[in-house]
């Protein structure tokens, strides 16, 4: 099939490359000419494992091209996939200006029947609004499809080529058949729904996963007080098929360009129809607090006095295997430390440039590797579970730190890693591993009035 993908970011680029890999002819469009120049010279503007190789192979096979000429790409294609950003507005609602602008450009460029597909995450009803916009600008016929995307950064190629399911929201049998045909090679699990339900499936899925994370983080916080181990609790829960083991890793809360944005957007979607989504508001609140547990632990260790300390930070990306720092917990944690007079040293294997672009270069000492970051610091906080950090020998780490204090925000280290060290060690929801700060567990009250 002939496909144009509008927006060549984390989603559009991966989707475009994967549709080409299936044998389609794909033109990826972006108005950011810097990105298009990088792509046309054989580079990849983002860090995503496996993407460069797959892109190169499909360009060489003449199935994949990159351009900033949107009208040209639309005219050569039968299916137009919108994958532009829908970032949050200050009140949490999705900013639809990019997608509306792109829809109008498509309308102006149309030269015949097209299937116009929205892969961007958009509030319920947006596909219909976009269709109205387009209809007013073109005499040509088209069908609308909502095709929500479920890939995760860091495993985006695998998620795209072996998805758990494909959701196709559509109201035209012709467009439904074409979209099923396009996705058939990927999975048998293709669910065709109405357009509004498809839009809602995306938000509901992200909100549910975020809820699992906030739930296990609260369980972790309780584990710390009652002397249970959250990793064992999660394992035990996960064997129940009705619960499942995924998204039960306690840590410093979820970040990234999706969960924080989409949970807040769903609260707004509900609010617009006079529904107070209380559960999801709590999920967001719990997540916000979870980030600051790292700070609370530092304050406990330093007797409340952070001013003048040197703190090393390992990890700036919101998760490993990506350079994306959008809504990364590291942004708020480092901001707080710097504002409170802490000297921060930081390192991330790939996300340092993006972090500096958002945070600024000032106020933080940027380091080249894990041990250089730890050198001379009064404490170390691990915020992203990159393999590079998990591989560090803790005895060597202890020898370069000024004080052996390790706050492990991702439960990377195990009891055996700590053997032979005398770290003050705090992780998340695993009080039995806390070293050097053995707190007396309170006797549990027999009856509690809550
Ligand atoms: N990042 C993810 O993991 C992920 C996963 C699933 C869904 N989504 C959703 O997919 C959408 C895209 O997310 P992303 O992370 O890829 O965003 P992104 O910011 O990485 O990429 C968006 C791209 O669109 C381009 N763009 C904007 N307006 C344009 C126009 N008029 N013409 C051409 N290009 C234009 C921008 O220059 C940018 O390169 C969002 O709605 C997001 O919520 C993202
Ligand atoms: O058990 C877990 C799992 C994840 N996280 C955190 O949750 C965030 C999101 O992680 P992940 O889901 O792996 O990455 P994303 O790339 O943000 O992917 C999510 O957001 C995308 C954009 O909507 C969706 O397409 C994906 O299905 C959805 O998983 C990260 O900060 C993780 O550290 C946890 O804290 N504990």
Automatic annotation (TrEMBL):
Broad EC category:
oxidoreductase
Where along the chain is substrate bound? 150-153, 202, 247-251, 255, 319
InterPro entries cross-referenced by the UniProt entry: 6-PGluconate_DH-like_C_sf (IPR008927), NAD(P)-bd_dom_sf (IPR036291), UDP-Glc/GDP-Man (IPR017476), UDP-Glc/GDP-Man_DH_C (IPR014027), UDP-Glc/GDP-Man_DH_C_sf (IPR036220), UDP-Glc/GDP-Man_DH_dimer (IPR014026), UDP-Glc/GDP-Man_DH_N (IPR001732), UDPglc_DH_bac (IPR028357)
Q: Where does NAD(+) bind?
A: 30, 35, 86, 121, 153, 261, 326
Give GO BP annotations, semicolon-separated: polysaccharide biosynthetic process; UDP-glucuronate biosynthetic process
Catalytic activity from the UniProt record: UDP-alpha-D-glucose + 2 NAD(+) + H2O = UDP-alpha-D-glucuronate + 2 NADH + 3 H(+)
Q: Where is the UDP-glucose/GDP-mannose dehydrogenase C-terminal domain?
A: 312-415
Which named protein is this?
A: UDP-glucose 6-dehydrogenase
Pathway note: Nucleotide-sugar biosynthesis; UDP-alpha-D-glucuronate biosynthesis; UDP-alpha-D-glucuronate from UDP-alpha-D-glucose: step 1/1
Q: Where is the active site?
A: 258 (nucleophile)
The family this protein is said to belong to = Belongs to the UDP-glucose/GDP-mannose dehydrogenase family.
Instruction: Give EC number(s), comma-separated.
Output: 1.1.1.22
> Looking at the Swiss-Prot or TrEMBL record, what is one Pfam family this protein matches?
UDPG_MGDP_dh
Instruction: Cite the Gene3D superfamilies for this sequence.
Output: Cytochrome c1, transmembrane anchor, C-terminal, NAD(P)-binding Rossmann-like Domain
Swiss-Prot/TrEMBL keywords? NAD, Oxidoreductase
Q: Which domain of life is it from?
A: Bacteria
The GO molecular function terms of this record are: NAD binding; UDP-glucose 6-dehydrogenase activity
């Amino acid at each position: 099939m002939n496909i144009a993908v509008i927006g060549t970011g984390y989603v559009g680029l991966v989707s475009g490359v994967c549709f080409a890999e299936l044998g389609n002819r794909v033109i990826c469009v972006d108005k950011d000419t810097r990105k298009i120049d990088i792509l046309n010279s054989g580079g990849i503007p983002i860090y995503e494992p496996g993407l460069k190789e797959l892109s190169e192979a499909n360009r060489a096979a003449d199935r994949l091209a990159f351009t900033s000429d949107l009208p040209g790409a639309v005219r050569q294609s039968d299916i137009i996939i919108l994958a532009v950003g829908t970032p949050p507005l200050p009140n949490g609602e999705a900013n639809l200006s990019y997608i509306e602008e792109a829809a109008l450009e498509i309308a102006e460029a149309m030269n015949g029947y097209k299937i116009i597909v929205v892969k961007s995450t958009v509030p319920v009803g947006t596909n219909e609004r976009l269709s109205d916009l387009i209809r007013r600008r073109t005499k040509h016929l088209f069908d609308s499809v909502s095709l929500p995307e479920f890939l995760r950064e860091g495993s985006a190629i695998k998620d795209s080529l072996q998805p758990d399911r494909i959701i196709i929201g559509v109201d035209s049998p012709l467009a439904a058949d074409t979209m099923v045909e396009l996705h058939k090679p990927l999975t048998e699990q293709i669910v065709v729904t109405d357009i509004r339900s498809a839009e809602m499936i995306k938000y509901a899925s992200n909100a549910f996963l975020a809820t699992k994370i906030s739930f296990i983080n609260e369980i972790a916080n309780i584990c710390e007080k009652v002397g249970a181990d959250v990793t064992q609790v999660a394992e035990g829960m996960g064997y129940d098929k009705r619960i499942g083991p995924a998204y039960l890793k306690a840590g410093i809360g979820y970040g990234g360009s999706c969960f924080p944005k989409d949970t807040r957007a769903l609260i707004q979607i509900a609010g617009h129809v006079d529904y107070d989504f209380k559960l999801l508001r709590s999920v967001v609140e719990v997540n916000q607090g979870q980030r600051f547990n790292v700070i609370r632990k530092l304050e406990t260790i330093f007797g409340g006095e952070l001013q003048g300390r040197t703190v090393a930070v390992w990890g700036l990306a919101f998760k490993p295997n990506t350079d994306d720092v959008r809504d990364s917990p590291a942004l708020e944690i480092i901001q707080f430390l710097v504002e409170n007079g802490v000297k921060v040293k930081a390192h991330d294997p790939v996300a340092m440039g993006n972090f500096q672009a958002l945070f600024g270069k000032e106020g933080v000492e940027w380091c080249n590797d894990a041990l250089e970051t730890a050198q001379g610091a009064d404490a170390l906080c691990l915020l992203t579970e990159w393999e590079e950090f998990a591989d560090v020998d803790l005895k060597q780490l202890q020898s370069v730190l000024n004080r052996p204090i390790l706050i492990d925000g991702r439960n990377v280290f195990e009891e055996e890693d700590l053997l032979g060290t005398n770290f003050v060690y705090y992780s998340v929801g695993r009080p039995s591993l806390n070293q050097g700060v053995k707190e007396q567990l309170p006797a549990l009250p027999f009856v509690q009035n809550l």
